[in-house]
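User: Hello, can you help with two protein structures?

Assistant: Certainly.
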Amino acid sequence: MSFAIFHHLLLLTILLPFSFVAQTVGNFPVGAALTAGGGASPWLSPSGDFAFGFQQLENKDLFLLSVWCEKIPEKTIVWYANGDNPAPSGSKVELTADHGLVSRNPTGEQIWSSNITNGQVSHGVMEDNGNFVLQNGSHGVLWQSFDHPTDTFLPTQSLEIGGVLFSRRTETNFSQGRFQLRLLEDGNLLLNPINLETKLAYDAYYVSRTSDTRNSSNSGYRLVFDAAGGLYILKRGGDGFFLSTVTVPSSDFYQRATLNFDGVFAQYSYPKRSTGSTNWSTIFTQPENICTAINGTLGSGACGYNSICSLNDKQRPACTCPQGFSLLDSNDEHGNCKPDSEVGCEGDWLSSMEDSVDFVELNNTDWPKSDYELLRPSREEECRNSCLHDCLCAVAIFRRSSCSKKKLPLSNGRLDRSVDGKAFVKIKKYNSLPGERKSWRAVIIAESVLLGSSVFINFVFCLRFFFYLRKLRKNGQGRISVETNVHCFTYKELARATNDFKQELGRGAFGVVYKGEMQIGSISAIAVKELNDLVQNGEKEFKTEVHVIGRTQHKNLVQLIGFCDEGHHRLLVYEYLSKGTLAQMLFGKSKPSWSLRIEMASGIARGLLYLHEECSNTPIIHCDIKPQNILIDDKCNARISDFGLSKLLMMDQSHTRTTIRGTRGYIAPEWFMRTPITVKVDVYSFGVTLLEIVYCRRSVYTETDGEEMILIDWAYDSCREGTLHILVEDDVDAMNDRENLERLVKIAIWCVQEDPSLRPTMRKVLQMLEGVVEVPIPPNPYSFSADC
């Protein structure tokens, strides 16, 4: 008996290490987990070449769930999850049977999931080729990282039609960047910049030309990276179009192909038996010169706006600001450059331009897509003088008897010998006073010296100066803040533009809105909001907040054009949007389509996310989100109005809870409690608005029998009873899309939770709207005992 027990103990002792290895190298069972910053070993492939786990980022409190090259000192990341939202320290990733990989933050909120829907996960496998695979009990593949590439391609991996690689934002910022590689339906492989807000693809700067409309067998259908290092587009007829003809033995080298953050797609190799300080070697790059390859009319080019691109010794773009400009973000060398001082059309610019402006000369430099005038024939001195006396001209390029004038912002800047010309970049000579003050400083000094002995003449001079200032005051439309592009108007200008404020567009919590006519650039119609309940004697604070609002630039926000701060008059000027409000569309006779309503909901969410997290260091809380404050532009984009106004109306208050702001039916419960007001009040109002978008009914509406209904209550009860479709039975598209219908209502119920801590952030809301993260079943918004 004792021998048998000893025998079993001995056998267990021998097998335990092997059992432990089986769970930590190669294969990992359901229930296995890793913690960010917990010090646990990552999940390794059998050879130990690749690892899966949390990589610590430059911000030591954040971690990236990723796959990396374990045996390379710099631990090069080849795949990652959720780059836009890295995991805080203490986050956990667990392998589950129902959803595969699930990552949660320290409070238990889900950050990311592999979202398995096609079976039960049995185990995970970290393969020696860098692919992390989730398998079922019969070793069938349910999910694999190779099918969800980020910015890097590995040997044995392929990219099918519709597949995309996205660059990261910077070398150390794994948020989605400005460039993408994609294989189109026609068989072409493209590299192109994108608009970060909407993901719109701009003009391609590389096209493989593997599309043949006359013979489909000559068209590409798959990008292949084979084990020998061959990178090619496989054609339907069996032939291959090679991007790189250099092959490197996989037994001796690690390999990868990466779409770098600067838009260059490159293939690299790294010796496996390296003993010294080795770096990745470049095998090929595409394009060869990205500075000149990007030539689209949209976007900033390889570098930021007003920057100059040149190639470094690794065929990668180096970006510099010209003299007189500096980086907008000092931490982003490839970002935008801003003028160090204003050179524009302020004040009496014509008479003072020659005294205050100088030119920096740059050889073989051009911004080819920023031209607005072409002078031909022209001589070099004529070109220079034409730009000097044109307040809109920021740069003039002279080449071969022609002169092209350019205005800010400058795009596609490059240093290129083929330019064969000279650039004259306009800069300030010295830090002079702004516009009109500068020209009058010289006048004051001169006339004071010449006329100082005469009291009468000095009186005449002062009178002249007074009338000059009055003239400037009348010309308010010309006074613009270069930083924010916000105009300063006089009250008379706005009274004249609105025909003495005759046509009222609407009234709200913040004041009355009037329609006006005024030509400002391409804008001819304006909306003028006369603010009420403003703090008196708060001129400095008012202007500060107006400029904060003016700096906001987003597709889903109504742009502030200007303001008036004259005596007791405080007015804001916006562009006029002719399609009216979201309320008019939702509650009118003809409802917007189901797909348009979904897109509008996402647009509002993007605008709120920008206000809460992205536009400044301090969140902008709207305080009155509702369909009446959502305007619709000509392209049917939903654009939030009245943002930033709640702070303007409460500048003398230390806590926003001292005055309730908002509209019945949309007001979050914390307005009535002794609790701080945060961005979560906007989340609540968005939830109510989302229900109105879904059902095209007001948050408080009256049934045919006269009974008053609260939309939140009805939606929750219907969610619990499975009858969400009842109020959309006359909407065929919504009825045919019940999955989305249920998802949107569940998101709305999460947003209107009585407890603010249970409401998601707008970033999480947008992820749920876009289907990036799963929407769990919400609890009762008023009590926490039952789920729907």
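That covers the first. Now for the second protein you mentioned:
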Amino acid sequence: MRLPLFWLTDYVDPGMDASKLAARLAMTGTEVDRVHTHGVSALENFVVGRVLEREQHPDADRLSVCQVAIGEGDVSTIVCGAPNVAAGQTVGVALPGSVMPDGTRLKKAKLRGVPSNGMILAEDEVGIGSDHAGIMVLDDDLVPGTPLAQVLPISTDVLELEITPNRPDCLSVYGVAREVHAATGAPLNPPPWMEDPGTPGPVEGVTVEVQDAEFCPRFTARLFEDVKIGPSPRWLKARLMAAGQRPINNVVDITNYVMLLTGQPLHAFNFDLVAGGKLVVRRAGQGEQMTTLDDQVRTLDSSMHLIDDGEGPTSIAGIMGGQRSEVREDTTRVLMEAANWHGPTLQRTSQKLGLRTEASGRFEKGLPPEQSMWGTIVATQLMLELTGARLAPGTIDVGGEGPAPKTIRLREEKVTRLLGTAVPIREQADILEALEFDVHDAGDGLDVTVPAFRRNDVTREVDLIEEVARIWGLEKLPATIPGHGMSARLTPEQRLRRRAGDALVGAGFSEAIGWSFQAPEMARRLRIDDSAVKLRNPLSEDLAVMRTTLLGSLLTSVRHNTARGAEDVRLFEKGSVYFDRPHRREPTAAEARSTPLPDERMHLAALMTGRIRPASWGDGNPPTADFFAAKGVLETVLGALRVDFTVVRGADPFLHPGRAARVLVGGEDAGWLGEIHPGVAAEFGLARVAGFELDFGAVLPHAVVAPHYEDLTSFPAIRQDLAFWVPADRTASELVEVVRGAGGKLLKDVRVFDVYAREGQTSLAVRLEFRAGDRTLTDDEISPQREKIVKAVAEKLEGELRG
């Protein structure tokens, strides 16, 4: 939301500049995305002028040469292209050195040979309107040379606010003014809807029927006759332009102005085009069509709601009006509607139609029914003031106000306990009263009645404590550990996950954090099945399903880095993945009977591309990341967790054939390891990429949280080498596993150090290390173990000792 400060100060003046106000609001929970200036700058160069003479340009039919007084005794020659410029007019003038809204600095110029020392201004040239057809003509009583900023709001600071969904009351100028009042203590003017020029009762000739009261809790409307359509005054257009709205005409501008001021969207019907004078709020028929104000034909379904008259649909409820009843230049009767709509239903309609408006963005967050009348009152004031209209007696009001306000007990002891410090009870009351809560003393604290505009947000005592804390000052709260025996320690699982991450950081990896959502297209890019959990209400089409692997987001992150010049990239991610059914197990009986929830699993994945170590004078061309580099990192991670693992051949479609493996922990599948398939890597604009992904749920049960101390022995080891011929389809990991199993307790380490292949067979050479903690071993003790190893290899792997 764009908040012009000069509009804000109509209701509260905080007495501070924009940057300080932005910082104060941010500390109270209202995030300010940025602060910028709307309009012009170098204001000293913008002045009031008076056209003394106007002559035709000698070489251009559409240009005029004007002599303009810009101060006492100071006259400038200005060439002007506006058709309405004339002698005697009081105008706005930009002198050389002025900075225009687009950042252009005005200079002296020659136009068709005639010097021009400035510019006579139109509305759009100072950002207070969109009219460029002619110059602005100001009041005759203004004195030439008067700074133009004293006459027109030609420059203002604007706060770009990021309003959270639970605070639709802040999607209005007065709502933010209320927050500024509470945050700074600056006086707050009364709300603009305090004085109602209208009257209750029926409106002659107007009927409204609401067929779905749950969708439309309240519908208010007033009829205005003898309306004169025309341009809005400059003060109103200036506020709309600074807030990001384009002025159209006085009636349409009033609806936008009231929405921005009060937060209540409105719609103006050309009442002469409302057939039968009756409006009906109803569900749309399946396939029913209507043309909206943007000249688009919309096809509706039975889950949507519309407003129709005797001839059919005339508005999509709460989203956009219809073209058939729009206000036009010849409109003389206007029915001004301010209604309240059910947010979730309206949001689904907006999403289905791909049609999101300023109105729908407010309604979908949940507005109070009371707000409808606030908007109606302010719109009535402006219609009478700006259009010369006559208000027909009565007010359409179907539904009425919302539920009775809720009163919540705020206990002083609970405030102190949750915040970790005592906030004086009088200060608590002052803060809540500033936010327009009704406060009364109670024995152990305060009885607080919630206002209508906070009904959906403040429902519990803890919500009131949050209000007190954010206004009193979050920066004042001490850093304390909660009481009641609560522990601030990490759980064993959290400690292990953090240890795995630390191991990767030590191996030169950086942590990435990706979305849990991804595009449905990601499954095709990774060559995996597309049985992902689909979101009912996705943020966008590109974030419509839950991820089943961390690989997609990591490949995207790697590509993001390589595209910006990084050659050697090492990234890892810890995060959740989701399956549409229980993963690795059958559902329980209770799960089978209930609506199944996605099976959420915590994974760890790492990817590397480029060189495995930096180049140096002694190694100018280091090897690039491959299967074995990734396996080395995997060993580092699982070693930090004290987890034994093995790898077996894998065939995942996203991995390179022959360079793919599955990781087994405790005999169970725990993830994948290998090089990414070249075709998959190419989908992301990458070359050779290697990595792994582990399921923490399969790994952590086998991890050692607190490793036990073991004495280091000073007795020497006996190292021996053996080489075996094994069938070519046998793997090195199988040989190592068999050797370890046969070697007994004295065998401390086994490593493959040489591979030699011939047709049908592979020679694998292993280095054995035998050690005892209490003595020096002899060859006689080792020989039986060596013989067991040779025998086990022959029996289990069909291997033989190489000669």
